[in-house]
Design goal:
Layout lengths: L6 H10 L4 H8 L3 H8 L7 H11 L12 H11 L11 H10 L1 H19 L1 H6 L1 H8 L2 H11 L5 H14 L6 H16 L2 E5 L7 E4 L4 E5 L4 H16 L1 H11 L4 H20 L2 H10 L4 H8 L3 H8 L3 E2 L2 E2 L4 E5 L5 E6 L28 E6 L5 E11 L9 E10 L21 E2 L37
Parallel strand pairs: 1-3, 8-11
Antiparallel strand pairs: 2-3, 4-5, 6-7, 6-10, 8-9, 9-10
Helix pairs in contact: 2-3, 5-7, 6-7, 10-15, 11-15, 12-13, 13-15, 14-15, 17-18
């Protein structure tokens, strides 16, 4: 093993666990002076010490790898390639050192740039309605997305508590119709909540009134959807203090962000109740992460299963680190959850060569893709459409494509790798994070020139690539 100095990463890990150097040393069976020397890059990380750390703290060995910073690196590249704030060439090696040695500074720079970009993009809104400007700047969806990303899309204490709650109800063992009745009984007996089902041509999906203790759900929801909404509201009652502590500790900048975070945490908890971690993890591993099969076993929809698969990051019992996305036909990404470093650009649209857009051509069919990002990493992607139907003829419904991707080194654990030669680079489709950030040359699908490259156009010369 080459000499690897990981001082900043070890400090980060220690601070996340709220440990002193002496406590960390005791946990690892090392002397405090030895730990101090590693943290100050006097001693390199050795294989035996790495193994002790991974065993004691449940972190993947790639936690100490530069490759683990791929998303932060990509976000920082967007910042330095914004021509409106930077016109000085910055060496990528220097940028990589900044991300690795001073990740908090890099994240602060990214956050500052987002604030700046928001001011720039929403200036007209602020001028028209100054009182709404501060709320608009908060970018609730980005704050909440980063809240989950910083935790690898896994909330340990909440997941454990909801697992116990779900197992006590029989989740994963009982048919969904029986489980839903158990949830209704628990809601009524434990919290005095009555569940009412309504019909009619309206936009209601569900509503809980804390004053009357009535939870209303629409009759057009499937059995699994009703159970999910009920589990989410039960979780927000059962784990109210835990949820509020998570929201309070994050320091969200607006009430909209806090409410969106509560909704997101409630949905996470609902999935943890209906699909208790250990049983769900075991079933996923035994059946090759087959989403449609898991959907039948646990009685919930394709999207819900795919989303839950992206949360399996419990220390000592990790699943495949997936990235989960949901997009519409126009390329708008309405959900993005990741237990990996994969990053898609916030500047412009995503890559049109990505398999997720093929899914709209044949609704309901699973598509697969062996893809390669510009940094050389190979991924296996699956994509399928899901529909959210309205109850009446002529009413506008919703259709999305749901994508689930992992690095190809994990792909053999899934049924979706069957028949694909993921070891052959020639079989990979070259995709990117989005045209504005993609470094590929000669791409016929490029819609915009890359932000970090000078545009070279000759009126008397053209190629298949527009830029």
């Amino acid at each position: 093993m080459a000499k690897t100095f990981v001082g900043s990463r070890l400090r980060q890990l220690r601070r996340e666990r709220d440990l002193t150097q002496a406590e960390l040393a005791a946990e690892l069976g090392l002397s405090p002076s030895y730990v101090n020397q590693i943290e100050h890059d006097v001693r390199p990380l050795t294989v035996p010490v790495l193994l002790r750390i991974t065993e004691a703290f449940g972190v993947d060995a790639t936690f100490f790898s530069l490759d683990d910073d791929s998303r932060l690196m990509a976000e920082l590249e967007e910042v330095i390639h914004d021509d409106e704030i930077n016109r000085v060439a910055i060496d990528m090696h220097e940028l990589s050192e900044l991300v690795y040695n001073h990740p908090d500074i890099a994240r602060t720079m990214v956050a500052m740039h987002r604030r700046y970009a928001s001011v720039r993009d929403k200036l007209s809104l602020i001028m028209d309605s100054p009182t709404e400007g501060a709320e608009a700047l908060a970018m609730p969806h980005e704050e909440v997305r980063d809240f989950f990303y910083a935790r690898q899309n896994y909330l340990h204490d909440l997941d454990i508590r909801c697992e116990d709650f779900g197992e006590a109800l029989g989740a994963g063992q009982l048919p969904m119709n029986v489980l839903e009745e158990e949830l209704r009984t628990a809601a009524r007996e434990e919290y005095g909540v009555e569940v009412h089902t309504v019909s009619g041509d309206n936009d209601l999906v569900h509503h809980f009134d804390p004053e009357t203790r009535i939870l209303t759900v629409h009759s057009h929801l499937s059995l699994g959807q009703r159970a999910f909404r009920l589990a989410a509201e039960l979780a927000l009652l059962e784990c109210a203090e835990d949820v509020e502590e998570l929201v309070r500790a994050e320091g969200f900048r607006s009430e909209a962000s806090r409410e969106l975070a509560r909704r997101g945490v409630g949905s996470y908890a609902a999935a943890a109740i209906l699909m208790p971690y250990q049983g769900f993890h075991r079933c996923a591993e035994q059946n090759g992460y087959d989403i449609e099969y898991l959907s039948q076993v646990f009685g919930v929809g394709y999207e819900t299963i795919a989303s839950r698969l992206s949360t399996l990051q419990r220390p000592q019992l990790r699943g495949i680190p997936f990235t989960f996305v949901r997009v519409d036909r126009a390329g708008n990404m309405s959900k993005r959850q990741s237990a990996t470093g994969l990053h898609f650009s916030n500047a412009g649209g995503t890559c049109p060569l990505w398999v997720i857009y093929e899914a709209f051509a044949t609704p309901g069919r699973i598509h697969r893709q062996h893809a390669q990002m510009p940094d050389g990493r190979h991924y296996l992607w699956t994509a399928r459409t899901v529909q959210h139907r309205r109850p009446h003829f002529g009413a506008t419904g919703k259709i999305f494509a749901v994508g689930l991707g992992c690095e190809s080194r994990h792909a053999q654990r899934t049924v979706y790798s069957q028949g694909l030669d993921l070891s052959d680079p020639a079989s990979a489709t070259p995709i990117g994070p989005g045209c504005r950030m993609c470094s590929r040359h000669g791409c016929a699908q490029r819609a915009f020139p890359a932000l970090h490259e000078q545009v070279d156009i000759n009126a008397h010369h053209s190629t298949i690539a527009p830029y």
